[in-house]
Amino acid sequence: MSARLLAAARRVLHLALDAHRDDPARTRWLRGQLDRLDEPLRVAVAGKVKAGKSTLVNALVGERVAPTDAGECTKVVTWYRDGRVPRVVMQPKDGPPIPLPVDRRDGALVIDLVGTAVERLDRLVVDWPAQALRAATLIDTPGVFSTSEAVGRRTLAFLDPEDEKPTEADAVIYLMRHLHATDAAFLESFRDRAVARATSVNTVAVISRADEIAGGRVDAMFSARHIAQRYRGEPTLRALCQNVVAVSGLIAETGRTLRQSEFAALAELAREPKETLDAELLTVARFLKGGDRVVREGLLARFGIFGIRLSTSLLRQGSNSAAALAGELIARSGLAELERVLHTQFAERRDLLKARSALLAVDAVLSPAHRAGPLGRELERILAGAHEFVELRQLAALRSGSVGLPKPVAAEAERLLGDAGTAVPVRLGLPPDVPPHEIRRAAFAALERWQRFAENPMFTRAATDVCRVVVRTCEAMLVGMAQAAPLRAGPR
């Protein structure tokens, strides 16, 4: 279904280009939106200062491409795109792009702005050959609610443009250490203003630096996952984001980029008596006094106290190679769960999110005359009537708790509307490898069940509206399976 919606968005963009062919500024904007349809999904990474945004970007890319210090580059919106060869380009607000040298030191990319003031820059663009960037362009943003008002404004201006045009991001990963009123306020502003008519479906919240919970004990990630699970049930967050995941970005980054020399240093630590090392790891000061200070400072910078505790524990349990240790660190960091969530919530909805961005871009630049004409009516028809958008609106209503369906019924409605993913077996609550005839049987059963719900006189109008949308979703699944069956059968 989303492929048809993407085609409709492309058609509307062409119509808008033709309607505004005498307006160079609007034509440039619309052509950019047309090109955007063929690009990977754009995912912004946002959060407060020192929330771990750049570290998480490095973990997702699998290389240390984003600066994680407090340098000037962390104050500029930076795009990380897939490219054939590494390239760094500085884009001033006025003037042509300026190529910068690609400088790697100690395994990390170092970006030198060659004396250019960050206030003069619109963005940095880093092209990097990476599998992860083929599916999504990652956009690292400066910390919101920064002590420097100008720095925080750059992120807000990117995600919430003052000219009422939609943001250049299709989706957002929002990092927070815990749920604070300012975090909820930011998510609310992004949902309501930056992306008009948007819903929580394009936002995932991450409890970042999860290893610091519970004092950095080895079981800190277990505590963090329990907190994330509790947050998923919080009405405030459910209305503002699609999911909540706990991640230790530092452990994920280190696992993805672990070096043999670091493994050797950790292995040497693990050979110390456990009581001795545990005592050293009580504080940073004690740890630094316990051995070669330069080596230990390097380990602290890359792993943190929690990571050293966890790594030495894993080494004692049998992770006897750098590859084995790296795999365990990644598994325990929460990165795999985040990547799964990003795949089901963002990648599977790529066409839908892209189409919505394109249609809202057209809506933002339509002249009053064209808004009242055929083009405006066609745009409004698609935005208001496309079933994919109707699903998103009803899903948002369910997640806000305003519909009034019984909890088990509401939970099934959310799943059928694509809350956990858009694949048909996932919507129906079935394993991915279930035979087609069982999928059809489950879809028919769901259709009959929700037809009965839609006729329930005890339900409110809002609940009945949701039920009717779910009925249409079930019908669409059955139609899709019927159309796919001849293709699987092939010619006779």
Strand content range: 5-15%
The CATH superfamily of the largest domain turns out to be P-loop containing nucleotide triphosphate hydrolases
From the alpha-carbon coordinates, what is the Rg to the nearest angstrom?
25 Å
Tell me the structural class. alpha/beta
Mean pLDDT: 87
CATH topology of the largest domain: Rossmann fold
What's the total helix number? 23
State the low-pLDDT regions, or none. Answer: 192-198
Spatial strand arrangement across the major sheet? 4-3-7-2-8-1-9-10-11
Count the strands? Answer: 11
Under the CATH scheme, which class of the largest domain?
Alpha Beta
Q: What is the molecular shape?
A: globular
Whole-Å distance between the termini? 28 Å
Q: From the 3D coordinates, which CATH architecture of the largest domain would you assign?
A: 3-Layer(aba) Sandwich
In helices, the fraction of residues equals 55-70%
How many domains make up the coordinates? Answer: 3
Please outline the major beta sheet. 9 strands, mixed
Secondary-structure blueprint of this entry?
Layout: H1 2-19, H2 24-36, E1 41-47, H3 53-61, E2 78-82, E3 87-92, E4 98-100, E5 103-105, E6 108-110, E7 121-128, H4 132-135, E8 136-140, H5 149-159, E9 171-176, H6 181-194, E10 203-207, H7 220-232, H8 235-238, E11 243-246, H9 249-257, H10 260-270, H11 274-280, H12 284-289, H13 293-316, H14 322-333, H15 335-345, H16 350-365, H17 368-371, H18 374-385, H19 387-400, H20 407-416, H21 424-427, H22 436-454, H23 461-489
